[in-house]
Design goal:
Blueprint (H helix, E strand, L loop, with lengths): L3 H29 L12 E10 L9 E8 L2 E2 H10 L5 E6 L3 E10 L2 E2 L5 E6 L2 E2 L8 E2 L4 E7 L7
Parallel strand pairs: 1-10
Antiparallel strand pairs: 1-2, 3-9, 4-5, 5-6, 7-8, 7-10
Length: about 160
C-alpha cells in the first residue's frame, strides 16, 4: 500500500496539473474571446416616425418616404436599422470601435454615398441633428430626413 508521503506527493502533483489546465483554459478563453448568449430584450414599438431619404438629382433613384416603427427611446440609427429590416432601404455604415454607437457614420443609403466631398446628413424635425445618428434620440411622431450632398455650413 501507499505510505502517507506518496499520497501527498500524488495529490500535490494532481493539483499542479489541474492548476496548469485551468490557467491554460482561461488563457484560451481570453485569447479567443468570450461572447454572451444573453441578448438585450427587444425594444417595444410604440409608434412610427416619418423617414425621408432625399437622393441627389443626378442619381437615378426615387426618394423614399416611409413610416417606420419606433420605440419610445429609439435613435436615428435604430430607425435606419428597422427600415432596412423592413425592406424599405439598404444602407452601409461604419462604427468607431472605441466609441461604438456614438460614432456611427452612414456611408451609403440605397447604394449612394462614399463620396469624397459629399455625405449623408440627417435632420430631425427640420433641424440639423446636433449629434451622431447612433445617439440622436427620436420618438414616435418625429420626422427624420436624410440628404446627400455637401455638408451644411453648420458642420464645417
Amino acid at each position: 500500500m501507499f505510505k502517507g508521503s506518496a499520497v501527498k506527493s500524488a495529490t500535490k502533483s494532481n493539483l499542479k496539473i489541474l492548476s496548469v489546465v485551468l490557467f491554460l483554459s482561461g488563457m484560451l478563453v481570453a485569447a479567443v474571446g468570450c461572447t454572451s448568449t444573453v441578448e438585450a430584450p427587444p425594444k417595444i414599438e410604440v409608434g412610427v416616425v416619418s423617414l425621408s431619404i432625399d437622393f441627389p438629382d443626378d442619381v437615378q433613384r426615387t426618394d423614399i418616404d416611409a413610416q417606420v416603427g419606433c420605440s419610445a427611446d429609439a435613435t436615428v440609427f435604430e430607425v435606419l436599422q428597422r427600415a432596412q429590416t423592413d425592406g424599405v432601404l439598404e444602407f452601409e455604415y461604419s462604427i468607431n470601435a472605441i466609441q461604438e454607437s456614438a460614432s456611427v457614420f452612414v456611408r451609403t443609403i440605397g447604394g449612394v454615398g462614399d463620396g469624397e466631398s459629399k455625405f449623408w446628413t440627417v435632420y430631425v424635425n427640420g433641424e440639423l441633428a446636433k449629434e451622431g445618428c447612433g445617439t440622436c434620440p427620436v420618438k414616435p411622431g418625429d420626422k427624420i430626413r436624410w440628404v446627400f450632398g455637401e455638408p451644411p455650413a453648420d458642420l464645417l
